[in-house]
Specification:
The chain contains 15 helices and eleven strands. With 348 residues, it is of the alpha/beta class. It holds the Pfam family CoA_transf_3.
Length: 348
């Protein structure tokens, strides 16, 4: 029995953020019923592996929520559910009656989570992942100083908002009260800028980019070129520096404040010494010393190095759930066929 066994969650999800949130809950034992429009949710058209990566362990029911019959059937599901999560434009959420105000008549304890771009009252402006990263300052502070703004190679805003929505959903269920939960991509990304935003709001420090993704406070903490490949080195305190300096044959700069004030000198010395060995070589030398360092890997290399993270769900190999609960091993089931829940209900 998973920790969320007995919890039923309805999902009216599109593409990534909403489906990712509910998939994590399904991995932990919740019963997740994916409510899809006639013809199926749009991500089914992206590709089978894409859909499987966000919708394993769920069931599917096909409802036309714009019709009287579809709304009636949704109401029946709501009476027997703990929560509903939806990610659509605010106007569509309200039009389809997917708010607590509209659904509480069926179940006063239902938790309704709206996952939107700018909040339920924030309007319908497009809010795709990359757009939100641009709008919240994330792209502007990413990349080399002399290069263009840069986006990461995956959907960081969507995934982060999915995580936050799952947290908000569970928090309201634990409270024992029904109600509306409002989570937006914009707010989540601004929240994750925590110390960057605080530095500006309180000290007027405008974020600036450093070469090789260097940290704004810690030195040295960035990517470094080596004899072969790049090494991520993250020296956060003086103890790490002493151990690294001894292994690398460096002297001086014993205090964090000194390393920060003389950033360019420190980085020049570290760059020269790291060029004497490969990234893998440095990783192997620094690991026994407890120093945070890793050779930059490609995704295929990372997956090959962590076979325990890969699971099988139906016909697909996927990355498994990230929350490990003692005594519970998730059963990874295939993503649902369209409307399979209706067929199962009629046969039972």
């Amino acid at each position: 029995m998973g920790p969320l066994a007995g919890i039923r969650i309805l999902e009216v999800g599109v593409m990534l953020a909403g489906p990712y949130a509910t998939m994590m809950l399904a991995d932990l034992g919740a019963e997740v019923i994916k409510v899809e429009p006639p013809g199926g949710e749009i991500s089914r058209q992206v590709g089978a592996s894409y859909f499987a990566s966000l919708n394993r362990n769920k069931r599917s029911v096909c409802l036309d929520l714009a019709s009287d019959d579809g709304r009636r059937r949704l109401g029946e599901l709501v009476t027997e559910s703990h929560a509903l999560l939806v990610n659509m434009k605010p106007s569509v959420i309200r039009k389809l009656g997917l708010t607590y105000e509209a659904l509480s008549e069926f179940n006063p304890k239902i938790v309704c989570v709206a996952l939107t771009g700018y909040g339920l009252d924030g309007g319908d402006d497009p809010a795709f992942d990359y757009v939100v990263q641009a709008a919240t300052g994330v792209a502007a502070m990413t990349g080399d100083p002399d290069g263009p703004p840069t986006l990461p190679g995956y959907s960081s805003a969507d995934n982060s908002t999915g995580l936050t929505a799952a947290l908000g959903l569970l928090a309201q269920i634990v409270s024992g009260r029904g109600g509306q939960v409002d989570v937006s991509l914009r707010d989540v990304m601004l929240s994750q800028l925590n110390y960057r935003a605080s530095a500006y709001l309180n000290d007027g420090v405008v974020p600036r980019r450093h070469p090789h993704g260097a940290h704004s406070y810690y030195v040295p903490a960035q990517l470094f070129p080596t004899k072969d490949g790049y090494l991520a080195l993250f020296i956060t305190h003086d103890g790490f520096w002493r151990s690294f300096a001894q292994e690398a044959g460096l002297g001086g700069f014993g205090l964090m404040a000194e390393r920060s004030a003389r950033r360019d000198e420190v980085l020049a010395l570290v760059t020269v010494v790291l060029a004497t060995d490969t990234a893998v070589g440095w990783q192997e030398r620094l690991a026994p010393l407890g120093i945070p360092a890793a050779a930059v890997r490609s995704l295929p290399e990372a997956l090959e190095a962590t076979p325990d993270a890969v699971v099988t769900a139906g016909d697909f190999r996927l990355v498994g759930g990230s929350v490990k609960v003692a005594g519970y091993e998730p059963e990874y089931r295939a993503a649902p066929e369209l409307d399979e829940y209706s067929a199962q209900s009629q046969s039972s």
